Amino acid sequence: MIFSEPIVNSVTWVTSLTHGLQPTLLATATEAENAPIVLTGVLLSLVVIYLASKIGGELSRMMDLPPVLGELLGGVVVGASALHLVVFPDSGAIASDSLIMTILQFINNLTPDSVTSIFQSQSEAISILAELGVIILLFEIGLESDLKELTKVGYQAAVVAFVGVTVPFAAGTAGLMFFFHTPAIPAIFAGAALTATSIGITSKVLSELGQLKSREGQIIVGAAVIDDILGIIVLAVVASLAKTGEVDVFNVIYLIVSATVFLIGSILLGKFFNQSFVAVANKLQTRGNLVIPAFIFAFFMAFLGNAIHLEAILGAFAAGLVLDETDKRKELDQQVKPIADILVPIFFVTVGAKVDLGVLNPIVPENREGLIIATFLIVVAIIGKVVTGWSVFGQAGINRLAVGVGMIPRGEVGLVFAGIGAASGVLDKPLQAAMIIMVILTTFLAPPLLRFAFKQSVEPQETIEPADVIG
Amino acid sequence: MIFSEPIVNSVTWVTSLTHGLQPTLLATATEAENAPIVLTGVLLSLVVIYLASKIGGELSRMMDLPPVLGELLGGVVVGASALHLVVFPDSGAIASDSLIMTILQFINNLTPDSVTSIFQSQSEAISILAELGVIILLFEIGLESDLKELTKVGYQAAVVAFVGVTVPFAAGTAGLMFFFHTPAIPAIFAGAALTATSIGITSKVLSELGQLKSREGQIIVGAAVIDDILGIIVLAVVASLAKTGEVDVFNVIYLIVSATVFLIGSILLGKFFNQSFVAVANKLQTRGNLVIPAFIFAFFMAFLGNAIHLEAILGAFAAGLVLDETDKRKELDQQVKPIADILVPIFFVTVGAKVDLGVLNPIVPENREGLIIATFLIVVAIIGKVVTGWSVFGQAGINRLAVGVGMIPRGEVGLVFAGIGAASGVLDKPLQAAMIIMVILTTFLAPPLLRFAFKQSVEPQETIEPADVIG
């Protein structure tokens, strides 16, 4: 029966119950019963996430650090490392680990089975919101990037990305095999994790520093995009190596070709699409006449990116680049801002929340071997990316340190490698822990380092936009 | 193993995989594997939903009808009645009914089990987005409403709500028992379904007509809010009647007291909160300095509304009313608009998508009895609400027809009654079908009728804001 409780909640019921003519409706009665509680959990999680992001972001700014660092740390505080308010079943948490679930259980007097199912649904909802957050972030970054500028620095970006992938990969794999006698496949996996660059974190910091449109900023963003594509390819190679001991050459060629065709194709086709977009937006007269067509385009491109087994964020970034070329740019930018403001923090806080700083505790004996390997990986991770700055050619007076430092954060992409490594079973515990520590430290060190690097700049900045810092 | 496919998608992986130190990570490998496909499904659903809302909304406007009607009809076209692009498992659909799932299955070569699980997760995500949409809609309506105006018309609104609940309930229940020899409990259930007013649809239409701040508009919104509270109470009474044959008096008193305390309490406390809100928003200097604190407040109030077994939308509406009293009103209004623009259509399109117009087909013999009962219910539904206009007192020159017509749409609240009725097992098929037809027709007729009623207005409108019509 649908009423085991005097809970009557029309709006939340509606999405779970409808006309009920189908015979299967009763079978989903339990889920329908839980639906308002899932919404309660999502709302409470969002309140916690927003509080964490704002308190963290503001404290970070007061200390003259980039706000996104505070958002990540805010996530760490409310997440698996400390308060256990925002935890996820796919990081191994169960419902009773979640403080929010404990609160919901107390309010609604739930059975353990219901709690597990509500926890799962609520976590999935927050994850989807976080994913929409990073898609919109990349769309916004695309909107703020200048296609002409990006094309101008295209070669440099490609070289930086290539160096930033090969140097850490080679040094990391060889070093692990030589110094730590790690077998080849786990060493290659760890080396692959060193190649990642978090385009989300790096571009957010650049935007906060007002450096997104500087030459350095554009090289970093371009290189991070190319790095993302190279990362997809490296990951595919390594994963098939780990699984079968062989490399699926066809798949590697497929990924290289599809990524290139997708990015270049969408930008070329975009020139034609531009005209129609402006024409359509001018004709529409109901609310959302600009932002809805833009989101249709962005989400469709993100869908395409995912559908051809690349990445949703690549599609969103390409969509932003294309729409940046229209007359509607300014207006669209202004309307996307508040949407990004409420969705992007969900991404950063959940990235922080999923990290378990427990692996950093040297008092726990099994952490120690990992900490030693981690120290090695961190050194390789930083040096391997910093050197990329010196691979930039033909750009007199460029801040090479800033370019190199901008490539350091591994962020969510590094976590992916670590996660897939853990699931593949080829990594032992110390190496897993070391990879995670490397990802955490490069992610958290990069924002202050990047700020420092730009302060050391020998030339005046081309663009400083306070409007980018204060929304 | 996590790689059964050459799908490598870093951003979507990240939300499903993390450091992987927990032993349970492998157990969730299947879900992690599906996570990027769920996102693909959500993105494609959003593209379809936005296209449906914009095409429907614009066509509606061209025919001089309120855009929200077109959004609902757009939902009908893409939903269970026609294209089967946006369908929901809790309306009895299975994965193979969903065209989007068929597309995903084709792209990713999925097993039937995976498809079922992906369909479930994707539908839950869209439902949560729709729920956030109606929460933000009510927050925006609260922001656009004037607390002083609402208090001025408070008594009238209460009378209108009371008449609009008792007349259709009494006439519907008595008529069904007298003319159709329906047993008491199902008759009471159907009568209860007649009491609902969809605050979402009615206030959206008012806003689109630029009538939200007119006297009529404020009475309708006030009455719809009170009606929502009365609806919760009626639903609780009827549901406990259907279940046990008795009324749980304690629960009824609890709901009445908690709803009153919640709404009045939050508005009174809001006067103090106002000051701190402005002070905090002025101090914050990172992006989202205004919109994030506002959403923390709105989502917390919505959470509270849900947690005390009332409704999330009541909390969001109260939050909007409170923040409307601050100096930041204009700025906040402007920033909430694009957020509402992308989330609210998801709500209206899914309401339309969940409706199955198949029950209206008179060629199917089992629909006929329902159609006859439906005709009776529709007459009661319209007359029972239109008379409420004549219960307004002490307001010379008020457009009584507009007030009455504004109360007609049953919308999502009516669907809830129908859904709970179906799940309770007390309603036979013809009565179920009749209730659904009544909800569909009152929902779709109300917007054009309301527009007509306002055109018949004998006095000039107080407020017409084209800015409300074109975002």
UniProtKB/TrEMBL annotation, chains A, B:
<keyword id="KW-0472">Membrane</keyword>
<feature type="transmembrane region" description="Helical">
    <location>
        <begin position="65"/>
        <end position="88"/>
    </location>
</feature>
<feature type="transmembrane region" description="Helical">
    <location>
        <begin position="433"/>
        <end position="454"/>
    </location>
</feature>
<protein>
    <submittedName>
        <fullName>Kef-type K+ transport system, membrane component</fullName>
    </submittedName>
</protein>
<keyword id="KW-0739">Sodium transport</keyword>
<dbReference type="GO" id="GO:0015297">
    <property type="term" value="F:antiporter activity"/>
</dbReference>
<feature type="domain" description="Cation/H+ exchanger transmembrane">
    <location>
        <begin position="51"/>
        <end position="452"/>
    </location>
</feature>
<feature type="transmembrane region" description="Helical">
    <location>
        <begin position="35"/>
        <end position="53"/>
    </location>
</feature>
<dbReference type="GO" id="GO:0016020">
    <property type="term" value="C:membrane"/>
</dbReference>
<feature type="transmembrane region" description="Helical">
    <location>
        <begin position="155"/>
        <end position="179"/>
    </location>
</feature>
<keyword id="KW-0812">Transmembrane</keyword>
<comment type="similarity">
    <text>Belongs to the monovalent cation:proton antiporter 2 (CPA2) transporter (TC 2.A.37) family.</text>
</comment>
<keyword id="KW-1133">Transmembrane helix</keyword>
<dbReference type="GO" id="GO:0006814">
    <property type="term" value="P:sodium ion transport"/>
</dbReference>
<keyword id="KW-0813">Transport</keyword>
<feature type="transmembrane region" description="Helical">
    <location>
        <begin position="294"/>
        <end position="322"/>
    </location>
</feature>
<feature type="transmembrane region" description="Helical">
    <location>
        <begin position="185"/>
        <end position="207"/>
    </location>
</feature>
<dbReference type="GO" id="GO:1902600">
    <property type="term" value="P:proton transmembrane transport"/>
</dbReference>
<feature type="transmembrane region" description="Helical">
    <location>
        <begin position="125"/>
        <end position="143"/>
    </location>
</feature>
<dbReference type="InterPro" id="IPR038770">
    <property type="entry name" value="Na+/solute_symporter_sf"/>
</dbReference>
<keyword id="KW-0915">Sodium</keyword>
<dbReference type="InterPro" id="IPR006153">
    <property type="entry name" value="Cation/H_exchanger_TM"/>
</dbReference>
<feature type="transmembrane region" description="Helical">
    <location>
        <begin position="371"/>
        <end position="393"/>
    </location>
</feature>
<dbReference type="Pfam" id="PF00999">
    <property type="entry name" value="Na_H_Exchanger"/>
</dbReference>
<feature type="transmembrane region" description="Helical">
    <location>
        <begin position="253"/>
        <end position="273"/>
    </location>
</feature>
<feature type="transmembrane region" description="Helical">
    <location>
        <begin position="219"/>
        <end position="241"/>
    </location>
</feature>
<keyword id="KW-0050">Antiport</keyword>
<keyword id="KW-0406">Ion transport</keyword>
